[in-house]
Write a structure and sequence with these properties.
Layout (H helix, E strand, L loop, with lengths): L1 E2 L3 H17 L3 E7 L14 H29 L5 E7 L2 H11 L5 E4 L12 H9 L4 E4 L1
Helix pairs in contact: 3-4
Length: 140
């Protein structure tokens, strides 16, 4: 179950937990802290400390997303076997990598995350669906 704090991811979490309960499946909650990209012209004013500070703030935000998801599981589905993981990198790459290495049966994720909204399907969910070796359930 890939999480990013978006409304779509929250709906996907609810569905993933219902499926896990129905099939007595283990669930892995995953959130990925994306790399900080600064426009090239900002490099003259951005210090390494600034990049570190922004990265730390992003980590805190995504750890909060993971914590809230774990709380939801504890409150709504306390008997489920759930693990949680935070990774760093490009979300679409890390989700596929974790799925391949963990021998997952299904990836559940929201159709659009926190990024741009003009596409019917978000770029991360689209790339995961294209590259994953297991089924991908994309929730609107």
């Amino acid at each position: 179950m890939a999480l990013d704090g978006s409304d779509h991811a929250e709906r996907a979490l609810t569905l993933a937990l219902d499926l896990a309960q129905q099939y007595s499946a283990e669930t892995q909650l995953l959130t990925v802290v994306p790399p900080v990209f600064l426009p090239i012209h900002s490099m003259t004013v951005a210090t390494p400390e600034l990049t570190t500070e922004v990265t730390t703030q992003l980590e805190n935000i995504f750890m909060g997303v993971l914590y809230r998801a774990e709380e939801k599981v504890r409150q709504e589905k306390p008997k489920l076997k759930v693990s949680a993981k935070i990774e760093h990198g490009r979300p679409e790459e890390k989700i596929v990598e974790i799925a391949k290495s963990g021998q997952l049966d299904l990836i559940v994720m929201g159709s659009r995350g926190l990024g741009r909204r003009e596409y019917a399907l978000g770029s991360v969910s689209s790339r995961v669906a294209d590259c994953a070796t297991c089924p991908v359930l994309i929730v609107k």
